[in-house]
Design a protein that fits this description.
mainly alpha; 10 helices
Length: 272
Amino acid sequence: MDWPNLLVALGVAFGVTATAVLTLWLVSIRRQDVSTIDSVFSLIVLAAVAVAGGAMGAAPAVRDVAVLAPLAIWSVRLSGHLAHRKWGEGEDPRYTRLRSWVAPGRPFHLLVLRKVFALQGVTLFLLSIPPVISLHAPEPDGLGPFAFGGLVVWVVGFIFELTGDRQLTRFRSDPANAGRVLDHGLWRYTRHPNYFGEVVMTWGIFVVCLQTPWAALGIIGPIFYTRVILRVTGTPTLEKKLGREKPGYAEYVDRTSRFWPRPPSQGKPRQP
């Protein structure tokens, strides 16, 4: 492994991520809308990895395509889906509630810089580490067991996220479902099939990167992202919102797995 060049590439990835996040933070101040980052955050990972990989100046190898293709499909699809869903809706209610946390006279933009944009920036940079290491691998080109295994894992996650998003979009488009809980399709087996798919895809890309053994050093990326989804800004904030808005959500929580897909509980309440 060419460590000096790898460190430069990681520095480039960090610089791209930091520049993008800070730019979006400034845009959010001007627009008075923190949601600005939501529709493009996945593209930041792709940009950071692509620019850092391009800094090598070498033509992409087959191994590189196996890393970049699933990353690009995930980031472009998710960004397009979120942009379409949020078009014309204004600021996400989660961020609107966050504004109430700020005492009179205190700058709200500094709070969101720390709680939203800095957290997103750290997460995105950590996610970029395994692909950047893989793109700088000295190993011979080609696809091995880790590549094929990781791609299978990624496809499973992609199907879950795509299907879950489509089922939710159809459910929301029917006015008769206002105030109701989506509890069929994949949503019968997990309360967050889209988040489950997102996390699985992240781990799938990481496994593909393990064609380069040194990429294992970047395991902090998928671990950190999984924790953010499960414990910080993903499922916890969404479930609080749904619990306030949907009368039947508590019963849905009792019978449905929070994250890992499994049959709904018929007896005692399901553990989170």
